[in-house]
Every structure is written in structure tokens, then in C-alpha cells.
Design brief:
By secondary structure, the chain is mostly helical. It is built from 4 helices and no strands. The protein binds iron/sulfur cluster (SF4).
């Protein structure tokens, strides 16, 4: 794999990191909630935990104040 490919992948990972996204947009409540849940699942500025989105989606900490507002929840269909 070439250095430019590695750089492209690194940039994409940074852009998908909710904690970095919040750092770039600190007035966004949605970004703040995503960042908090990502941090809760082991992510930080330089690391994204494998499968963190699914872990947040399946979060069973019902007493957490953010639980109802957490990102990456499965969509439900209404009839
Ligand atoms: S909702 Fe779940 S993942 Fe998000 S902060 Fe609370 S306990 Fe952590």
C-alpha cells in the first residue's frame, strides 16, 4: 500500500471520528452527544474503537441520561 493511500485512509478515519468532529464543531449538541457516547465506548481523539457504533446502538445503560438521545440507534418503521 502506498504512502498516499495510507494518508487517505488516515484522513478518512479522522473525519469519521465523532470526538474530532465535536472538536471542530463545539457548539453542536448532536456532535456533543456522539462524542460523549464514542468516548464512553473507548474512543478518543486518536483512536476509534472497533465496532463502537454498534456498541452505542446496543447500549443497555438505560439509566444513562443520554440513552434516549444516543446516536446510531436502529431505525424503527411506523405504520
Ligand atoms: S447512552 Fe450509552 S454509550 Fe452513550 S454515554 Fe450513555 S452509557 Fe455511554
Amino acid at each position: 500500500m502506498s504512502a498516499s493511500n495510507i494518508n487517505s485512509i488516515s484522513i478518512a478515519l479522522v473525519e469519521n471520528n465523532p470526538i474530532r468532529q465535536f472538536a471542530a464543531n463545539p457548539n453542536s449538541r448532536v456532535a456533543a452527544m456522539k462524542a460523549k457516547c464514542a468516548e464512553c465506548m473507548g474512543c478518543n481523539l486518536d483512536h476509534m474503537e472497533r465496532g463502537f457504533r454498534a456498541s452505542i446502538s446496543e447500549c443497555s445503560s438505560y439509566s444513562c441520561p443520554l440513552h434516549s438521545f444516543r446516536p446510531f440507534q436502529a431505525k424503527t418503521t411506523s405504520r
